[in-house]
Amino acid sequence: MKKLITIIIILVIIFVAMFAYKNLKPKASEINVQEIEKIENYINQIYMWKEVTGEALPYFEDINQANEIWIWEVVKKNLEEYELSHSQIQEKAKELFGENFTKEFPKEGTDALIYDEENDKYYAEGLSLDQQEDVFIINTASKIENGYEIEIIEYLEDYSETTTEKSNIIIRNIDGSKIGEIDTNDEGQAKELAKSNKDKLTKKKILLKLENEKIYVEKVYQP
Length: 223
Description:
Blueprint: H1 2-24, H2 33-46, H3 50-53, H4 68-77, E1 83-84, H5 86-97, E2 113-116, E3 121-124, E4 132-144, E5 147-158, E6 168-172, E7 178-183, H6 189-196, E8 202-211, E9 214-221
Antiparallel strand pairs: 1-3, 2-3, 4-5, 5-6, 5-8, 6-7, 8-9
């Protein structure tokens, strides 16, 4: 009888331990803080300026179908040097978009990367930006097979009406409509205002591929 009770107690302990482990261990579909930081850093790399590329992040079904102005401006944004060969530019594109990226940088250059035929080099041109900063925040994030599915909220921080007497920033949707105002001295208020008004803001889904511990954008689409 004592043996039977002992066996029952041991089985109960094992069951409780298994139940606790199942509930405490991270689920495969959950994303940890380090992964979110990595995702956010990558999106920052490819997130542009509306006045330069038309959209900070355009829609596309495949990276090779994405707006070419946006593609090469993203590459330029991430260059460490400003005098480059054709192969260096192409290598940077592969670094940002992965081995599935097949587009070739145009030999004649672009408006942003000017070709110097005499030296066979490309030179990065400076940018003229407006006073509206393109911003995104991650709304949802989930793991999928071989990558992540992310939803972002987009908005603009408009500094055009900021003066020495007035320090407010206007928060706008990317279509220009006003959402509200914040005080520039209150850090983080813009994100909180955007989150509380996310139903009025533009949302986009991003499909990211995880390959050899690196992240690459595959697709941007409407939720």
